[in-house]
Write a structure and sequence with these properties.
Elements lengths: L9 E6 L4 E7 L7 H13 L6 H17 L1 H12 L3 H4 L5 H16 L3 E9 L2 E8 L15 H6 L22
Antiparallel strand pairs: 1-2, 3-4
GO molecular function, one term: betaine-aldehyde dehydrogenase (NAD+) activity
Organism: Mycobacterium talmoniae
Keywords: Oxidoreductase
Length: 175
């Protein structure tokens, strides 16, 4: 693994009342996600991360543990940045999104990544059919201000590939 990337340029972030700086945020730009996307592509091409279920479960469990351990700090940041109340951080603003990570770790433990569809006879021959499922991508997203924890952690959810016609927009046709 290559390790951490150097820190990119950041801008100060302040709380409107009282007017004081409480941290920095990355300076936005279209080039920001490119290194992460390239790293994900390399990992997909050169490692077994997309098919190593135990590794993915372990990573999700570690992420969940880290979020739980930093829960109070994350709540303070959410209150300061978003203007959420402490009560909202106990639900949709923080605690429920943290549980999304736990949910997907638990779901993956029993999720069938290989599904045997059995044999079928076609044109006088037997054909064995099965479905293989694996991770297929990386998300580079702009997270809205109103529920940032939920929006960021919900990106962990499974998504069907856009090539699956029954779940994506139909291609435009010429008239």
């Amino acid at each position: 693994m290559a390790g951490w990337s150097p820190r990119m340029r950041c801008s100060p972030r302040s709380i409107p009342r009282p007017a004081r700086c409480w941290g920095t945020r990355p300076t936005p730009g279209s080039s920001r996600p490119r290194p992460a996307i390239a790293a994900a592509r390399r990992a997909f091409d050169t490692t077994s991360w997309a098919t190593d279920v135990d590794l993915r479960i372990r990573c999700l469990e570690q992420l969940h543990q880290a979020l739980v351990a930093q829960r109070d700090e994350l709540a303070a940041l959410t209150i300061a940045e978003v203007g959420a109340t402490p009560a909202l951080t106990q639900g949709a603003q923080l605690d429920q999104p943290i549980e999304i990570v736990r949910y997907y770790a638990d779901l993956l433990k029993g999720y069938p990544l290989t599904e045997d569809l059995g044999n079928i006879e076609s044109r006088g021959m037997q054909h064995h059919r099965w479905v293989e499922k694996e991770a297929a991508g990386v998300v580079a997203a702009i997270i809205a201000y109103n529920y940032p924890n939920q929006l960021a952690l919900a990106k962990l959810r499974p998504r069907w590939p856009p090539a699956a016609r029954w779940c994506s927009r139909a291609p435009r046709t010429r008239r």
